[in-house]
Amino acid sequence: MKNWFQNLISDFPFLKFLGSKYTLVSLFFIVWMLFLDNYSYMDSRVLDKEINELEDNKKYYQEEIAKDKQSIKNLNNPGQTEKYAREKYYMKKDSEDIYIIDIEEDRIKDSLEGAKQ
Question: pLDDT grade, residue 1 (50/70/90)?
Answer without folding.
Answer: low
